[in-house]
Amino acid sequence: MSEGASIDLVLAEQTKLTATLLNTIAAGCVVAGIITPLVGIALGALQITFDLRLAVVFCALLYVSGTLHWTARRILRRLGP
């Protein structure tokens, strides 16, 4: 394997790792910021009511998560077919 091909493989793996990191952070935002509080409210473990402020936080976390996931997909597109 030539040195150029080796460098290409390393860059491809680094690109995949970066995309995986962003996607993992996106999933963490959804789990920690949306799913966990909703389960806590449903089970009565959290004594908060669903109000406008909570809805805004949920929407913001969905937006952040979606943006991170979209960015990860854009990064992976650099690898080509």
Notes on the structure:
The chain has helices at residues 3-43, 52-77. The protein is elongated and about 60 Å long. It has one domain (20-77). The protein is mainly alpha-helical and 81 residues long. The protein is built from two helices and no strands. The two termini are 21 Å apart.
Report the helical percentage. over 70%
**What is the global morphology?**
elongated
| Mean pLDDT across all amino acids | 90
Distance between the termini: 21 Å
Oligomerization state = single chain
Low-confidence stretches: none
Please indicate the count of domains: 1
Radius of gyration: 19 Å
- Count of helical regions: 2
Number of strands: 0
Q: Sheet bearing the most strands, described?
A: none
Class computed from helices, strands and strand pairing: mainly alpha
* Strand composition percent: under 5%
Question: What is the N-to-C order of secondary-structure elements (H for helix, E for strand)?
Answer: HH
